[in-house]
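We treat protein structure as text, and this decision shapes the records that our systems exchange. We quote a single record here, exactly as it is kept in our systems:
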Amino acid sequence: MTVAALVTRWLASGDLDLPLPGHGATRQRWQRLSDLTEKDVTAGRLAEAHADAVAILAELAGPAVAPDQWWGVWAAEAPDAVVSARAVDGGFRLDGTKAWCSGAGLCTHALVTAGLADGTRGLFAVDIGSPGVRPLPSAWVATGMAQSDTRAVHFDDVTAAPVGRPGEYLSRPGFWHGAVGVAACWLGGARAVAAPLYRRAAGPHQLAHLGAVDAALFAAEAVLAEVAAEVDDDPSNHKGRAELLAHRARAVAETAVEQAIGRTARALGPGPLCADADHAQRVADVSVYVRQSHAERDLERLGTLAGERA
């Protein structure tokens, strides 16, 4: 089954009708995202974006999501791909090109960030079937995440509905809740990559690698559970800990991914990567997906936030 067909099936079956973050069942939300990504990393990545869009629209009082809609969140900013928003007749129109649009030819709708005339940035809901929306030819060469259909999309005088106030997409507490949702998906990908090691580990060296991977996966699961409890206890971020918690969760989940990829390969050798197509695809997919982390820049920010709390 293709990734597009799998996500479509999840949408139709209600598998993506997840609890909203901060509403008392955040742990269940992230567990389900993790489980879906364990089944298929690329499909889980697209499912997370749809679930995030639903949460954003709820948090910012945007339009309701219909059952037959598949949403993306296209918020990446690139210096050579800029989208601007113009106020026209009480509404807005978008012009320009947005880079890194996952699900460019799959989604029915998307939340798109765009620059406003006063220099601020707004968030806009767009029907991808609208005139003037044109996914550009793919420049994707990687095997990993190839089925995510991530490419640039051009907007030419496209009708768009504002969602929230200018700047609110980044300033709202839910931005950091969504960032942890991505970490939950990374964890699911790490579990999928480590599955052959759990099945085949034998002898002291392989079992030592399995022990290290199991500890890393359990640590990530425990951190996500703890962060979920704090999010439900303080959904509006009155304590000001949302960013700190998100960076902690993402750092621990990224470590779990690195442990799963590296130690599974060291323990089992090249066999699974060369002879098991599903495993090789999972490794390629999660290797690309986890690069949504900003690496040392995120760790530096975590260190700054942790130091301020000391």
Observations:
- The first strand starts at residue 71 and ends at 74.
- The chain has two domains: 1-60+172-310, 71-166.
- The longest helix spans residues 204-233.
- The chain has a mean pLDDT of 97.
